[in-house]
């Protein structure tokens, strides 16, 4: 047995409370190396010789590991446990809190070998609001979605043309009235979550360089209009998520301009990470001028980084976060550049919002493994790029095989607790990436195949505006073209609608981590309980006889390349 590959970590994604009486355990082994894993468990204060035992179930395999799981029932809300592991080679060991021991009664009943969960505290549990698991999000870049009020168009607004290739400084006049005008359309599509890129007062068209977080940008409307938009969305059963950047401010914000004017005498001087004075004229790395004398987002001198360890900055940002939740009843925050803000602040942020609404949804923009933020006291989930980009690497670019896809996806799922996987925000494209259809080389079947696969994964799926219209676009800013409203209701639109409808109908099952992957006869098979789906990512037709609920490229028992079947 490869003992070095055995792994379990208490009070983590390997050991978590799922309700006041039940504890879920996971155990990691090398692939095809272990015959069985048995957990011995009992109340923390019972005699060890009264321990019960339960064989764990192998739930899946990753690239190098097999994963085992079981759920224990403990009526007194506390537990101690250890693992008995039997290898394929006949070796027999105890894996416990103080290491690996040969299996015998002496080692089995050694108090020091038992992991402990002293009490199942509900307040410590990571939780995902039930509504999040039922939501299909629609990401709206407000400046490019719909121009509902030409009276607030910025000077130099261009004609609305979906065929344009936008420049970084271009404006097209999209606004909140335009979103309000299209709520019925979004409801018809099947959307029940609106995810807005920033709508606060800012200097740019993208609004990530915030000037004032407590004001709606006048290019988009005002607070009265936003309140009406939220209320109308809620009437339609839609939740609303706003996007904010608490990592940095815009260069034109009053706080930064006060530093520019007064230097060290500014009351906001300690709000930022200033390395030396003067801060102007700033250097611009994009022009080969070197680094500015203060920390920024990336190398962008127009976005000075906030010192979120400063109590005044914390108070300022927490007031913003709670203001929009209390006054406008938004349901969620998406947090830009979340991994560059300290954990201490995010814990305060979480506590402040939970005090207002325990079902509030908090999503961080983190593009890498995110366990430190997902322990129940910071974020509900993150933008699940490490998961969804694996899907792109197989379905869209062919960088990895079907077998490797299923392995790396299961490895990703095992990084987090089940409820955390249910709260991850899944997307195949966004305002920061090339569009799905462009990534698919404008092959509509290939794009739909990837979208269908995403929509049956654990988590909360998000669709970028215009995906249903088969819009194309390269990396930013080309992925931010004006919405093409002429394609609503066409064949491609209907197929996206049907996928969303299937997801919404089966959200209670599909949002969960209990998923099985298999690859056989050139098909990827995905099982969620009684739901089964098949995906053909090969270059030839495959014979398969199934009763499809939703499909593309399936006829007379033949599934074409880039075809899928979703079965109830």
Automatic annotation (TrEMBL):
Provide the species name. Lactobacillus psittaci DSM 15354
User: Could you tell me which InterPro entries the record lists for this protein?
Assistant: GH, GH13_cat_dom, Glyco_hydro_13_lg-like_dom, Ig-like_fold, Ig_E-set, O16G_dom_2
Sorted UniProt keywords: Glycosidase, Hydrolase
GO biological processes: carbohydrate metabolic process
Q: Which GO terms describe its molecular function?
A: hydrolase activity, hydrolyzing O-glycosyl compounds
Top-rank taxon = Bacteria
**Gene3D superfamilies xref list:** Glycosidases, Immunoglobulins, Oligo-1,6-glucosidase, Domain 2
Question: What is this protein identified as?
Answer: Neopullulanase
Residue limits of the Glycosyl hydrolase family 13 catalytic domain?
139-503
